[in-house]
Amino acid sequence: MVDKSYAVIGLGRFGASVAQALYNMGYDVMVIDEDEERVQDHVGIATHAVQADTTDEQALRDVGIRNFDVVVVAIGADIQASILTTLILKEMGVKMIVAKAQNERHGQVLYKVGADRVVFPERDMGLRVAHNLISPNVLDFVELAADYSIAEVAVSERTAGKTLVDLDVRARFGVNVMAIKSGDHFNIAPSADDVIKEGDILVVIGHNNDLKRFEEDS
């Protein structure tokens, strides 16, 4: 399998975090920002670091943006630059465009001008923190759509020692256990007879209302 190459436009906290994570995983990563000082501060988190105005089509051509498999538009507060950059990338034929949105309206516009995927870092983090505050055993929470999500739920003392058959979460709550994490072991599509141990983490998918009932009962 050929490794994908990535370009990250915008070196705020989100963009820098994405770029560094990809680079640490061994991928070819180019970071771009219009601020030269910011570019110099981040030369160690990418294969290439370039200063450029990404609202200028020629500047994007000069850095070879079409050579990258995925381009992440992580521009922060400048919504106009975010939208224009995404539009230019689409018109240039970039294969995959992932764009950061400040809010729902911004996200709708990004989709309309050509983003293949829109992410909402602040909103998603807020959801995760809120779910953790409501149910301390919820370790992570990822919204898949308006009404469906995935949650990582720590196994409680009263759940430990039972099998998935004993819990019968599908019938009781309408959710499905996708996997069980036991330390470094990840059991994908566990069987009904698998025993859940204290310290395990259940990866559960379902409607948000059903997940909430499951979290409160766990």
List the helices and strands and how they pair.
Layout: E1 5-9, H1 13-24, E2 28-33, H2 36-41, E3 48-51, H3 57-62, E4 70-73, H4 79-92, E5 96-100, H5 104-113, E6 117-119, H6 121-134, E7 138-143, E8 148-154, H7 164-167, H8 169-173, E9 176-182, E10 185-188, E11 201-207, H9 208-217
Parallel strand pairs: 1-2, 1-4, 2-3, 4-5, 5-6
Antiparallel strand pairs: 7-8, 8-11, 9-10, 9-11
Helix pairs in contact: 4-5
Number of helices: 9
Q: Name the overall outline.
A: elongated
Q: What is the number of strand segments?
A: 11
Strand numbers in spatial order across the main sheet: 3-2-1-4-5-6
Order of helices and strands: EHEHEHEHEHEHEEHHEEEH
User: Share of helix among residues?
Assistant: 25-40%
Strand content: 25-35%
Cα radius of gyration in angstroms: 21 Å
End-to-end separation in angstroms reads 41 Å
Mean pLDDT, to the nearest integer, reads: 88
Biggest β-sheet description: 6 strands, parallel
Overall SS class: alpha/beta
Low-pLDDT runs of 5+ residues are none
